[in-house]
Design a protein that fits this description.
It contains no helices and 11 strands. The chain is mainly beta. Strands 2, 4, 5, 6, 9, 10 and 11 form a 7-stranded mixed beta sheet that branches. The protein has a 4-stranded antiparallel beta sheet with strand order 1-3-8-7, with no helix packed on it. A hairpin with a 2-residue loop joins strand 9 and strand 10.
Amino acid sequence: QVQLVESGGGLVQAGDSLTLSCTASGGPFRNYAMGWFRQAPGKDREFVIGISRSGASVIDADSVKGRFTISRDNSKNTVLLQLTSLKPEDTAVYYCAAGQGFTSWVYWGQGTQVTVSS
């Protein structure tokens, strides 16, 4: 059983940057692809960005291309999400996830709130 804990959310202004962190425990971190999802009020949870087990492959949603960057440190069981050029529409609860691949997400964190004011 893998436990995921996110941190780093907060209230920022449009155009600002923010870094979210997700730390894993309880399982072999390097065996899992890692990803970030988000859920805005009244909307379904959506995929944001993911990184392969080795870190060699990254996929991201069109809405965040060029603005969000994911990275992982397998020695520290940590995955980071760097958010830049934030927009009010990026406001959501951001969730960290671990899975067998980019389409099979098994473990989820509790989420961290990101609020972007205009």
